[in-house]
Design a protein that fits this description.
CATH topology of one domain: Tetrahydropterin Synthase, Chain A
Number of helices: 11
CATH class of one domain: Alpha Beta
CATH superfamily of one domain: Band 7 domain
CATH architecture of one domain: 2-Layer Sandwich
Radius of gyration: 56 Å
Structural class: alpha+beta
Number of strands: 11
Strand content: 15-25%
Helix content: 40-55%
Largest sheet: 4 strands, antiparallel
Length: 388
């Protein structure tokens, strides 16, 4: 049967390659080019016909009729080649997924492996370490005339409504890898379309719950992290075999028609915040100083209070002691009080004592300028003493 099939195929090839010797037309109805060297051998047959006939003769000699040994040898060779076709190699960045008649059998790691040859088993080798990216709100393309990537906006994806009913023009990118090749191949039909749809839906939901100010300023990282976690949760629910590594906001701006007005508002808010910060800094500087000054005054008043009270108590105690001594010996106590008063009074003034005998020729002199100067000095120091 195999020999008959080969002879039949060679006969068809011969009829296809040869053309009629009567009209010199090709099988496609066109006259062939006339070559300087004729391809005919003079008997109306071409060299191609001779080659095909010789090949057919060799096949007949190799596989003669009614020779089962030759046919068995061919079958064994073909079976051996078919068996060897089951070896396959999985790269370091791949996972091998083996199916038997379309049904999942096993997953193989990088290295050399074997599976039953086609069509019994087949193997798929997705790249599990490659970081894929999906762009939402824009498309990046490489121009043949420029090395810089060209960006094209897609407003139907980019324009979103915020929580305070503003419109924001948002571009973001989803980065993902395959973490389970089996689920990736069999649970999701179009992984990229699925990830893009889920990412856009989750981002619209998150933007719809957030005011525009955090989206345009310091709240971007929070939005990115929340969207990443939500997209991953949905993909895990679908058992898609996909791991989202990052969600990155590329652009977050108001629509182009109102962007200048929005920037004016942002500048005004920035100035307001700056003035608030300056006032807060001044308040934080002056209030501690005032509190410190008040505390110092309170401490000084407490010290003065204790001093006055202690002095009054001491004076009272001394008076009681003097009174008790006076009751015991009135004359002695009266004399002592008189002497103490003279000592206290005369000790504060300048005085000159002149003996009557030695100072008979001394002219008395009253130093009025010095007394006036002392009076002025005393008047200048008394207000301070009163304040204290």
């Amino acid at each position: 049967m195999l020999k008959t099939f080969l002879i039949y195929k060679l006969t068809i090839i011969k009829k296809t390659m040869s053309w009629s010797s009567n009209d010199n037309n090709s099988p496609w109805g066109k006259k062939p080019r006339e070559n300087k060297k004729s391809s005919s051998n003079g008997s109306g047959e071409t060299y191609g016909d001779d080659y095909l006939k010789s090949f057919q003769d060799k096949l007949k000699n190799m596989f003669p009729k009614n020779n089962p040994t030759s046919l068995g040898l061919v079958v064994v060779i073909l079976l051996f080649i078919w068996t060897l076709s089951g070896f396959y190699r999985v790269g370091t960045d791949e996972q091998g997924v083996v199916t038997r008649f379309g049904e999942y059998v096993r997953t193989t790691e990088p290295g050399l492996h074997y599976h039953l040859p086609f069509p019994i088993e087949s193997v798929f080798k997705p790249k599990v370490t490659k970081v894929n990216r999906i762009e939402v709100g824009f498309r990046t393309s490489q121009s043949q005339f420029s090395q810089t990537p060209q960006t094209r906006q897609t407003p139907e994806e980019a324009l979103m409504l915020t929580g305070d009913e503003n419109i924001v023009d948002l571009n973001f990118t989803i980065f993902w890898i395959i973490n389970d090749a089996k689920d990736f191949l069999f649970n999701v039909r179009n992984p990229e379309i699925t990830i893009k749809s889920i990412g856009e839906s989750v981002m619209r939901e998150k933007i719809g719950q957030t005011p525009i100010d955090p989206i345009l300023s310091e709240g971007k990282s929070i939005v990115e992290e929340d969207v990443k976690n939500s997209v991953q949760a949905v993909l895990d629910y679908y058992q898609s075999g996909v791991l989202v590594t990052q969600v990155q906001l590329q652009k977050a701006d108001p629509p182009e028609l109102v962007i200048e007005s929005f920037r004016d508002v942002q500048r005004a808010k920035t100035d307001e915040q700056r003035l608030r910060n300056e006032a807060e800094a001044y308040r934080n500087d002056i209030i501690p100083k005032a509190r410190g000054e008040a505390e110092r005054t309170i401490q000084e008043a407490e010290a003065y209070k204790k001093e006055v009270v202690a002095k009054a108590e001491g004076e009272a105690q001394r008076f009681i002691s003097v009174y008790n001594s006076y009751k015991t010996s009135k004359d002695v106590t009266r004399e002592r009080i008189y002497l103490e008063t003279l000592e206290k009074t005369l000790g504060k003034i300048d005085k000159v004592i002149v003996d009557n005998k030695a100072g008979s020729g001394v002219v008395p002199y009253l130093p009025l300028p010095e007394l006036k100067k002392k009076i002025n000095n005393n008047s200048n120091t008394n207000p301070n003493n009163e304040q204290n």
